[in-house]
Amino acid sequence: MKTLRIYFLSIIIAFLSFGSMKAQSVSTVDSLNKKYLNWQNLDWKTDKVAGVSVEKAYNTILKGKTPKKKIIVAVIDGGVDTAHVDLKGKIWKNTKEIPGNGIDDDNNGYVDDVYGWNFIGNAKGENVNAENFEYTRVMKKYDPLYKNIHSKDVLTPSQLVEYEMYIKAKNKYNEELKLYQDQKKKLTRYQNKLDSAETTLKAYLKKDTIKQADVEKITSTDENISKAKESFLSLSKKGISRASLKAYKESVDLYLDKYLNLDFNPRAVIGDDPENIKDVKYGNNNVKGPSAGHGTLCSGLIAANRNNGIGINGIAEDVAIMALRVVPDGDERDKDVALAIRYAVDNGANIINMSFGKAFSPQKAFVDDAIKYADAHNVLLVHAAGNDGQNNDSIEHYPTKVLNDGTVAGDFINIGASNYTVDDKYPAFFSNYGQSVDFFAPGMNIISLLPENKYTKANGTSFSCPITTGVAALVWSYYPELTAKELKMVLINSTDSHAKLKVLRPSKTGASITTTFSTLCSSGGSLDAVKALKTAEKMVKNKKK
Which runs of E-coded beta strand occur in 31-145? Predict the structure, then answer.
C-alpha cells in the first residue's frame, strides 16, 4: 500500500482536514514553500535544519573525490516516470535488451524489459490500478472455509494458522467496513446540510454561487436566513465545502468500491495464479503505469539531477534507477514483491527501495525467500517503517526483517520519519517506531518529483526510505569495497544520536506521551551522510590492513 496515501486518508478520516485528497501538483518548485526545498539535504549544526547533511558531505569530505562505482537502485513501487526531466540520465537501462522488438533478447524471462518490469499488468498492456486490501483478500478466500468453525480443536495445525489469520482479517475488515459505511452516512448528512443552507442563501442573496465573505455580511433577522448563515459558516469553519465533500466522497467510495469490496477482482486482468510463485509469465514493460506519482517522488529523492537549475537536488550522483511496478492503489501482492526483489537481484541492483507495507502477508514465505536471495547476493534492502503512528514491535507490518524461520535478515533496514527541527516534535507524528526500526530520516514536508515534469510536497516514511537509500547509494559509490551488511552497519553506527532527546511519541490519535528518542528506534539516532562517509572510510582502511 502506498504509504503516502495512507497518511493523507488517515487525516481526512479523522476529520482533522477536509482538504484535497491529492498531493498538490505544480510545474515548478517555485510554486512551493522554498523553506522546504531540499531541506532533507541540509545539516543541523551548519544550517539549523535537521537534514541528513548531504550538502555538507559534498562540500567537505567528498570535495575533489570521484565515485568509484555506479550504484543501481531498484525502486519497487507503483511506477516511475522514467522520462521526467529531473531524472535525465539517471534511469537504469537493460543494455542486453533491444527495445520494442517483442523478443526476450537476454533470456531473463521478461520481454523488452528496458527500464525494469511491471508486475501488475498483462501482455496486452492492461494494468491493475486499484486493488483490495490484503485483509479483504484473506476474507474473500477463507470466509467460506472457516466462517462456521466454532472450535479450533477440529482444525489441523496448517488449518489453525489459516484460521487465526482469517479471524484477524475478519475483525479488521468488519471494523474498516463499518467505519467507511458510517463515514458515507456522515458525508450524506453534511451534503444535505450544505445543500439546504446554500439553497436558502442563494435565494436571499440572489446569487448563483455563494462566497463566505457575502454570507458573513448577512444581517437578516429572518430565522431561516439566520439558521442557514450559521449552518454555512459552521461547515466552512470545519473546512467543509463542495470541493472538499467531493474529494471526501471519492475517498470513501474508493474504500467501499475497491479496497473493501469482496466482489472486486482486478487480478483477473493479469490472469496468473497469485499464490503460485512459479507462475511467472505475466506483466509488461510499462514501468510507469497509470499511477506513477509515489514511485517518481521516491526516485527523485534518490537520484534527481543535482544543481541543474530545475527541480530538486537528489542525493546520489552516480546512480541508476531500476523501475519495478508492484504496488497498486491498495495492497501489493506478496508474489509480486518477491518476484520484483528477485528481478532486481538478477539484473544487477545493489540497493532495493521498498516504500510500501501492509498488515497481512499470507504468502510471507515467498517474500522471505526473496529477502534471503537478496541477502545471499550482497543486495541492501531499505524499507519504510509505516505511517500508522504505532509501535512496529507490537503490530504486524510487512515486509519484515524477521523471517518465518526465526532468523533476521542481515541486509534489511527499517526507517522512521523525522521532522524539520530537533525538538519534542522531531519524530513525525504519523511515523511507526520501535526497536525494529533502525533509525529515522526526514519525512515531513518533502519536496520531490511527480510525473509529467511536475513537483509536489508530501509526508511519509515513504520518503524517509529513499532518502536513506540515496545516502546508502552515495556511500557505496565511493566505497564499493563494502559489503551490503557492512554498509548497513555503517549507516546504523554513524547516526546522529538523539537518544536522550525528550520527544512526543508518534500518535495519530492526538495522544501526547513524552518519551526519549532512544525508545523509538534501536540506534536512538537519525541518518547522517557525513558521519556515514567517515565511518565507511575507516572501515575500508581497516579491511585493507
Answer: 71-77, 116-118
pLDDT at 23: 62
The three cell numbers locating residue 367: 517474500
Q: What pLDDT does 403 receive? A: 96
Tell me the average pLDDT across 411-431: 97
> Residues near 519 by Cβ (< 8 Å), separated by ≥ 6?
433, 505
Architecture per CATH, domain 3-128+282-544, reads as 3-Layer(aba) Sandwich (3.40)
User: What average pLDDT does the segment 130-150 reach?
Assistant: 97
Task: Give the tens place of pLDDT for each residue, 473-511.
Answer: 999 999 999 999 999 999 999 999 999 999 999 998 888
Distance CA(415)–CA(403), nearest Å, equals 18
Amino acid letter at 49? V
Min mean pLDDT across 1-15, 33-47, 428-442 is at 1-15
Cell numbers found for residue 539? 572501515
Cα of 418 vs its chain's centroid, Å: 15
Determine the 3-state secondary structure of 63 from DSSP.
coil
Other residues' Cβ atoms within 10 Å of the Cβ of residue 217 = 10
Looking at the predicted structure, is the pLDDT value of residue 524 above 80? Answer: yes
* Under 8 Å between Cβ of 350 and 334: no
Q: Are 379 and 346 in contact (CB under 8 A)?
A: no
51 sits in the region (left: phi over 0; alpha: psi -120 to 50; else beta) called beta
3-state SS string over 410-458? CCEEEEEEECCCCCCCCECCCCCECCCCCEEEECCCEEEEECCCEEEEE
List the domain boundaries for the chain.
3-128+282-544, 135-259
Q: Kindly state the average pLDDT of the residues 256-276.
A: 97
Distance between CA atoms of residues 532 and 238, nearest Å: 46
Distances (CA, A) of 535 to 61, 69, 206, 524: 12, 18, 71, 17
- Residue 9 confidence (pLDDT): 38
